Each structure stands twice: as C-alpha cells, then as structure tokens.
Amino acid sequence: MEIFLQQIVNGLAIGSIYALVAIGYTMVYGVMKLINFAHGDLVALAAYVGLTVLMQAFGMHLSNLWAVILMFTVTAMFISLFGIILERLAYRPLRKAPRLSAVVSALGASLAIENGIMLIWGPNIKVFPSNIFPSTRWHISGVVINSTQIAILLLSIILMIALYIFINRTKIGTAIRASAIDQDAAKLMGINVNGIIIAIFALGSFLGSIGGLFIGIYYRELYFQMGWIYGLNAFIAAIIGGIGNIPGAMLGGMLLGIFNVLIAGYVSNTWSEALTFALLIIILIIKPTGILGERVAEKV
Amino acid sequence: METILQITDLEVSYGSVVALKDITFNVKSGEIVVLVGANGAGKTTTLRAISGLVKPKKGEIIFEGKRIDHLHPHKIVRLGISHAPEGRRIFGTLTVYENLMLGAYTQKQIDKNTLEWIYNLFPRLKERSKQLAGTLSGGEQQMLAVGRALMSKPKLLLLDEPSLGLSPALTKIIFDTVKQIRNSGVTILMVEQNAKAALKFANRGYVLEVGKIVLSGTSEELLSSQKVVEAYLGRK
Fold first, then answer.
1. Is B86 on the interface with A (CB under 8 A)?
2. Structure confidence at residue B234 (pLDDT)
3. Among A10, A93, A241, B159, which is disulfide-ready with A248 (CB 3.0 to 4.6 Å)?
4. Cβ atoms of residues A20 and A57 within 8 Å
5. Does domain A2-286 have CATH number 1.10.3470?
C-alpha cells in the first residue's frame, strides 16, 4: 500500500508536467484544429534555455532562489515569444491551405527546432544541477515527498487554476472558447480571431515552458530529441482527456502520469510506452472523443 | 431618408465560381429591406460580403459614407453592423448568457438597458440564461442569434433566414420582433425564404437570381408583380 501511494505521488508530479504541456496542444487544436507538433520541441527548448539562464545566474553568484526565479521568468518570456513567432512563420501563411500542409509545416518546425537545439547546445546530454530546490524530504505515513515534487505540484496546480479562471471567467477567455467553437461566428461578434490565435500560442508556449523547466529539474538529463517523447506523451494525455478540452488536458495529464508510474513500478519500464498506447486505444474505443471531450448537438 | 448602406457593382467569387456579379443596391436609414431569391441566388453571400466574412473581388461597400469592403469582420462590427448568420451559428457549448455577452464583445461594458431590452423582446432567453445554448429549441436558438446580434447596439442589422425551420407561430413572433427592432431605430437588411410574409412588413425588396439583381421595388410593387408572385411567392 505504501509503495502504491508512493507511486501515486510520483505519478502526480510527472502527470502535472504532462498536463502543463498537454494544455498547449489542446488549446491550439481547439481553436485551429491543428496539431502543433513543434510544441514538444518548444518544451525541450525551454529546458535548454532554462539551463543556460541558470548557469549564467550561478555565474553571477546569485542566490539559489533568485537564480530559479530568473530562470523561470526569462525562459517563460522567451518561449512565449518563440511560440508567437512560430505561429507567425509556420502556421499563419497556411491558415487557408489544406489541413495536411499545416501538419507538414508543423513537422518541419519540429525538426528545425530539434536540430537548432543540437547545433547550439550540441548532441551530448546536458545535466541540470541537482541542488535547485532544497533536498528536504517529508515522510508522511511511509510515503516520501521531496521539495521538488511539492514545488512542481503546487506551481502546476496554481497555473492550472489560474488558466481555468481565465478561460471561464474573463472576456478574453470567453472569446477563446467562442473562437474554438466557430471562428466565423466569433468574428461576427467583433472578436479579432488572429489576436486570439496569438494569445493561445503565447499561453500554450508559456505553460509548455514551465513544463519543460520542470522536466529539467525533475529528470535532470537533457537531450536534443527529448521534445519528441515528452511531447508525444503530453499529446496522448490531451487526446485521452478529450482534445480541445482544457480541463480534459489537465485530467489526461494526471491520469497518464500515474499510469506511467504504475506500469514502471508494477510491470516494467520497457513496457511503459507500449501500454501507454494500449491505454489510449482502449479509451478511444470506449469513448472516441476522450474522457471530457463531447459536443453538444445543435438542434435545427 | 439618408442612405446608410450603399453597395455598388459588387462581385464575389468562390474560386472560379462567380457567386455575385454587378450587385448594386442600397439600404436607407430606418428601413427594412428584404433580399428575395431562390437557393444559390447569392443572398447569403451578399450578407457575408457586407460583414466582411468574404472579400469582394470587385465593387464597393459603403457604410455611413465609409468604405468597408477591405475591413476585417471584427472591425466592421465596431462600425455598427451586426450579422445574425445563416444557421444561427450560436455557441452551443456556452450558456445563453455567455452568448449574449459575446454579442457585446465590442462594448467596453455590458449595457444593462440593451440586455433588458433583449430580454423583453425574448423573455425565453432570460428564463434560460444559464442553460447551454445548444440545448435550446430551434426557435429559441433563433431568438438567441438575433438577441446576440443586437447586443453590439448595431445601426444596421443583417438577418439571414430568421424564420428557417420555425413553425408559423414562431415565425410570426420573430417577424413581429423584427418590426419592433426596426421601430427602435435599427435599420434591417434581411434574407428571407418566406418572402411574402417578409415583404408584407418590409419597406423595399430586391430580387436576386443567380448572383444578379433582377428586380427591385417597394414591397407593394414586388408583392403585386406577376413575375415575383409566380417565381418566389407561390400562386394564390
């Protein structure tokens, strides 16, 4: 039982990273019906940029806390801007082109970023320092939680609640939801749909950058193709939750994180990916729209 | 009466298919003008060109003396043109209230009077304000589409087939409301398959046939025109 609870705690930490990344996929898909395959690589880029900023900060003899704050702010700002530029260069010119063209462009952007990372930081594994968060651990009835896990969980949950409130309670959030339902109708309301698309790319990239930094802090090893595998997992999480649905991406991420950890703990690490896809297939057979994804039928 | 909307030599095509050709007509302030014609005649395309959803290939659209045919739809809404589109296009997974709020997206804040006015026009919307719009009946969805379009306090309201799929009783309610909206000072340009009923309360009408205007006149003239009666209104 203790081992099981321990796995759940580990799974929630990983799951909240997946959830942060999955939100980026789901928001872009929701409004543009486009799978932004470059999103995972943006997450990887965030980890690399974060590591560089952190090293610079340590070089300037900043305290741990300030270095971490600097790393999060600079990386988040840079990656959000990068997301906006990505949309402008890779997707906007193809807005009216057939769906497949945009997919090819997405794959191209993904490869470009991946190889860009390799050119700048090299093909060898880079390692995050281990002392970013204090090594404090808490023992709660046999379950060990460390400060990194607490930080990841807390910050993820705060960000997700903030996003939920933003999407559901603000005027721009409502405009984002409207644009996801029907772009032409949204334009007729006076909504600048181009502006909305820029906003979701910025927002998705921002959350993805936090996810990327957490990956660096939690797993510590960075390699230039990492965006693909983390991106794939987050993408699966988005589909499991119901792609296009933001709470679905959060739920899907958490479920997938716990699932991965349980498979690794009780079955075997090598089976983790295969069983992840098996889970995806089973969920899609039972509920093709994902767990929370559903369309309200419009009566005529 | 001054001309609020002037359309001159408008031409729109979808790819190589010409949808509208040499369309010239106007709407004067305070009028209800109806576009009549068979399916595919170009009525909906005309409205979509005015609200900016399709870009004209040629011609001019002038609203209150300002050329608008090159503007994005969201800018056109701000000038005072609101479009309740074909098929209602309400946001089904948002609540009725959220739909109305989106109608007021261009406003700095929600005008309570406008909202009250719309709730008075359509009391059903007030009763169902917390319900998801997709769960409304067809007639209620139409009310929502019109109410939502009014939330931006338009000077010109474009209505596309407001009676489509509605029972005669509901159609009458919608038409009565259209008259009330006009009486409150909003100019209306509408497309309506129920041409006879619409012409009865409209000021003027234009008849479109395969992308061209073939006939125009006051409602009385059109209602008494043999050609119109035979082609669009059904013999009586």
1. no
2. 58
3. A241
4. no
5. yes
Fold of B3-233: Rossmann fold (3.40.50)
Q: What is the pLDDT of residues A278-291, one digit of tens each?
A: 999 998 899 888 88
Radius of gyration of chain A (CA): 19
Domain ranges of chain B: 3-233
Cα dihedral across residues B128, B129, B133, B138: positive or negative:
positive
B90 touching A (Cβ < 8 Å):
yes
B43-94 pLDDT tens trace: 999 999 999 999 999 999 999 999 999 999 999 999 999 999 999 999 999 9
Contact B150, B120 (CB under 8 A): no
Predicted ipTM > 0.90: yes
Residue A122 sits at the vertex; the CA angle it makes with A117 and A128, to the nearest 5 degrees, is: 80
- Adjacent-strand bridge partners of B158: B83, B189
Chain B contacts in chain A segment 53-82 (CB below 8 A): none
- Which helix or strand (DSSP H or E) is residue A204 part of? helix A193-219
Q: List the single residue in B82, B85, B102 with the smallest CB-CB distance to A174.
A: B102
